């Protein structure tokens, strides 16, 4: 037993995971219960199979979203946030954003309250999954999206409101602008500190995973002091913290004839609009992509579409003290309770979580079994309608099929 309380501990950036860790989960709203049941069965079976019963996850349900509101009168109870913080690692299904209740998004609130500053989205093709790309197998990227600032900080003022008028007057009278009447205003904060910790996390990941490049995605040609500074600070932190491990494109061509030296990570930057083209036309040239919040939001979903859509895309929100793994799609309310949707996004988020806990034998089993299940043509409706000859199964049957394929060669 690694520690008496059976709680995952985080110390100096490394995790200590006991054999029977308590892991909080938020089931989620809409299709949440369906995909959670499926993901849980798959994760439990993989852990059982990989470790012969010596390891087991002790799941702890914590309320949030509609269920949280019904049970506690609060959409995001403090006890839920405390439990996630205490147990270091957690997983969640999608949650409805309450409309007109003064809450922007529960997901954004969780990220901000727990300071989960990196939204990590791996995008890798799974064989046989329908894709609009000619060569989807060339796609193997991981997006590190800054999670706490940029226009998502929520500093915006309604056109004609007293705050917008006050700010407009200040800008026009004291800062030399000539903003029209009835202009809505938003503020885009991008700080050196938050940029550097995000880019540092991306580079550390790249080094740890033996990957080869980190691309800083920005729109610095237009927004020089926010997105331009983002790229500048990204290069700075790569020199300050990882000087021995990184080289820039200029160094690559000036000193190494364009050939990446063994063990080095290439740091490059690309303008956002150009990168959207490049990930379609030359996906093999991109590996880890570190980006401010809004660019990252757009890019993550666009990349997910390149490898089979949101139903297949996993994600995690990671900070220095805890991490929350999550399905990247929403609650798809029209499908709630029908046992119909694709649980792969949450299952693959579970795979990321098991990797993060260093329970890699179990995560490898799930990857292999998911691949084998899709290859056998047993899939949920979203994939079945795109794969000729596929057998459409329910969400729960798909999970069962994954369990049955564990260990197949
Ligand atoms: P959505 O992702 O819930 O659904 C859009 C469509 O995508 C669905 O109608 C369905 O056709 C398809 N889809 C989604 N998940 C699927 C799956 N697992 N398998 C197969 N098909 C799937 O997006 P939406 O309709 O814009 O949002 C619905 C609600 O979810 C809103 O309240 C929104 O705020 C919330 N939301 C939550 C999260 C989150 O919790 N992380 C993310 C996005 C949206």
List the helices and strands and how they pair.
Blueprint lengths: L8 E3 L2 E3 L5 E5 L5 H20 L6 E4 L3 H8 L5 H10 L1 E4 L13 H8 L4 E7 L15 E7 L9 E2 L4 H13 L10 E2 L5 H17 L4 E6 L5 H19 L3 E3 H8 L8 E7 H10 L6 E4 L1 H14 L7 E5 L4 E5 L16 H13 L3 H16 L2 E2 L1 H4 L6 E2 L2 H11 L4
Parallel strand pairs: 3-4, 3-5, 5-15, 7-13, 10-12, 10-13, 11-12, 16-17
Antiparallel strand pairs: 1-2, 6-7, 6-14, 8-9, 14-15
Helix pairs in contact: 1-11, 1-12, 1-14, 6-7, 9-10, 11-12, 12-14
Concise overview:
The chain has 409 residues and is an alpha/beta fold.
Describe the structure.
With 409 residues, this protein is of the alpha/beta class. The chain has helices spanning 32-51, 65-72, 78-87, 106-113, 162-174, 192-208, 224-242, 249-256, 272-281, 293-306, 344-356, 360-375, 381-384, 395-405, and strands spanning 9-11, 14-16, 22-26, 58-61, 89-92, 118-124, 140-146, 156-157, 185-186, 213-218, 246-248, 265-271, 288-291, 314-318, 323-327, 378-379, 391-392. The protein is built from 14 helices and 17 strands. The chain has an 11-stranded mixed beta sheet, with helices on both faces. The chain has a two-stranded antiparallel ribbon with strand order 1-2. It has a two-stranded antiparallel sheet with strand order 8-9. A hairpin with a 2-residue loop joins strand 1 (9-11) and strand 2. The relative contact order is 0.16. The model has no long low-confidence stretch (mean pLDDT 94). Residues 94-97, 107, 310-311, 326, 329-332, 334, 341-342, 345, 382 line the site of nicotinamide-adenine-dinucleotide.
């Amino acid at each position: 037993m690694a520690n008496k309380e059976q709680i995952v501990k985080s110390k100096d950036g490394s995790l200590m995971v006991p054999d029977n860790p308590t892991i909080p989960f938020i089931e989620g709203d809409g299709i949440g219960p369906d995909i959670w049941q499926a993901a849980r069965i798959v994760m439990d079976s993989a852990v059982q199979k990989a470790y012969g019963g010596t390891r087991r996850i002790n799941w702890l349900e914590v309320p949030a979203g509609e269920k949280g509101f019904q049970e506690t009168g609060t959409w995001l109870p403090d006890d839920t946030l405390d439990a996630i913080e205490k147990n270091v690692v957690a997983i969640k299904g999608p949650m409805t954003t309450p409309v007109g209740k003064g809450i922007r998004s529960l997901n954004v609130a969780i990220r901000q309250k727990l300071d989960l500053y990196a939204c990590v989205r791996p995008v890798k093709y799974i064989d046989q999954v329908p894709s609009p790309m000619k060569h989807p197998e060339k796609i193997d990227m991981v997006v590190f999206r800054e999670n706490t600032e940029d226009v998502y900080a929520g500093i915006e003022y309604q056109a004609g409101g007293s705050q917008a008028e006050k700010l407009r007057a200040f800008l026009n009278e004291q800062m030399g602008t000539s903003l029209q009447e009835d202009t809505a205003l938003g503020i885009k904060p991008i700080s050196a500190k938050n940029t550097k910790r995000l880019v540092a996390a991306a580079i550390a990941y790249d080094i740890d995973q033996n990957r080869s490049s980190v691309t800083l995605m920005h729109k610095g040609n237009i927004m020089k002091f926010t997105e331009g500074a983002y790229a500048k600070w990204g290069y700075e932190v790569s020199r300050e913290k990882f000087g021995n491990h990184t080289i820039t494109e200029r160094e690559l061509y000036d000193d190494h004839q364009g050939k990446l030296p063994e063990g080095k990570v290439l740091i490059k930057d690309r303008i956002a609009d150009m990168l959207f083209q490049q990930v379609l036309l030359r996906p093999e040239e991109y590996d880890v992509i570190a980006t401010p919040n809004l660019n990252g939001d757009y890019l993550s979903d666009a990349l997910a579409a390149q490898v089979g859509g949101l139903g297949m895309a996993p994600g995690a929100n990671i900070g220095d003290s805890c991490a929350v793994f999550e399905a990247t799609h929403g609650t798809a309310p029209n499908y709630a309770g029908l046992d119909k949707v694709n649980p792969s996004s949450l299952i693959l988020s579970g795979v990321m979580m098991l990797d993060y806990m260093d329970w890699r034998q179990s995560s490898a089993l799930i990857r292999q079994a998911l691949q084998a299940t899709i290859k056998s043509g047993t899939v949920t409706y979203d994939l079945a309608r795109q794969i000729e000859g596929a057998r459409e199964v329910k969400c729960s049957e798909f999970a069962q099929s994954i369990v049955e394929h564990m260990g197949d060669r």
